[in-house]
Amino acid sequence: MKRVIVGLFALAAVAVGTGRAAAQGTLPITAEVRIDAGIPTGDLADAFDVGLGWGVMGGFDLTPNFMIYGGYSRFQFNDKGDLDIEAEDDGFDLGGRVRLGTGAGVWTPFAQFGVLFHDDTGFEAGLGADYPVGNGVALTPMARFRKVGDAQYFGVGVGLSLRP
Q1: What is residue 83's three-state secondary structure?
Q2: pLDDT 10s per residue in the chain (164 long)?
Q3: What pTM value is reported for the model?
Q4: Domain residue ranges in the chain
C-alpha cells in the first residue's frame, strides 16, 4: 500500500511539473494576421461610425514570457453624415507582448503595449490571448486601446498566429 501511495504522489508530481501543450514551434518567431473592428471614442465617435481594420505582425521571443513585435496596421472609418468622408489610420507598429500565465491550461493571456508610427506618433495598450488550434497555429482574440494624434479608438478582433 505504501508503494501505491508513493507511486501516486510521484505520478502527481510529474503531472504538475509538465507543461501544457502549446501552439509553439521550435523557433522563437511568430507571424500573425488579424482583422479588427475599430470602435471610435471621444471626438472621433461624434463624426465617424465603427470601422474595419486589419494588420500583419512579426514577433521574436526574447524570453518565454516576453516578445517584441513589429508590423503594419490599417483602420478605416466612414462618417456618420452625408459628406461621404472616410478617416484612415495606418502605419507601422512596434512594441512588446507580455504573457500573463497559462489561463487554466487552454489559452495563454497576454498584455500588449506598443508605439504607433502612423501619420502622428501614438500608442496602443491591450489584452488578448493565444488559443492553440493546431501544431504551431493559434487564434489570438484581442481588445486594445489606440490613440494617434487626436483620434482614439478601440480595436477588437481576432488574429491567426503561426509559429514555425
Answers
A1: coil
A2: 444 334 434 434 433 333 444 444 568 999 999 999 999 999 889 889 999 999 999 999 999 899 999 999 999 999 888 777 888 999 999 999 999 987 666 889 999 999 999 999 999 999 999 999 998 899 999 999 999 998 999 999 999 999 98
A3: 0.78
A4: 23-162
Best CA proximity match to 53, nearest among 32, 67, 29, 35: 35
Summarize the chain as % helix, strand, coil (round to 5).
15, 65, 25
Are the C-beta atoms of residues 152 and 159 closer than 8 Å to each other?
Answer: no
Q: What is the dihedral of CA 65, 67, 73, 79, to 10 degrees?
A: 30
Q: Which cell numbers hold the place of 57?
A: 505582425
**Position of cell 503595449?**
113
Domain 23-162, CATH class in plain words: mainly beta
Phi, psi of 9 (to 5 degrees): -65, -40
What is the structure's pLDDT at 103? 64
What is the rounded distance in angstroms from the CA atom of residue 121 to the CA atom of residue 15?
48
